[in-house]
Amino acid sequence: MKTTKNQKTPVDSGIRKTLEKMFAAWSDLDPAEAAPFYAKDPGLVFFDIAPMKYTGWAEIAAEVPKALAAYRSLKLTSEDLRAHRTGNLAWATAILHGDLAKKDGGTDHLDLRYTAVLEKRRQAWLVVHEHLSVPVGPAQRT
Q: What pLDDT sits at residue 52?
């Protein structure tokens, strides 16, 4: 599908593939594996579950291992991952399902809302903002 530079593309498979690779890179909970998918600007904001906010990649790299110290692996699967693009900017949304394996042998499961803003820098799409949240209470549809 050809698009002009400013034309919106409803679904961009290249961005989706990048995000799917990024989700897989988090499997061993090592930020170094996921690092190639993120912009490293020090002032960028990334919202998470706990803590609520990281400012800059350096903070993620330093603090995520502490926050996830009780776990040995993570399997993220996405439901309805959608990516949209206009020029060198893109945004993506998904419902994520996370299965965390604990070091003591137990497991935890999380259902997450996911939103990301990406920017194309050189030849790569990089996450410049990310937002994860956990629904509170049972899902209700109106």
A: 94
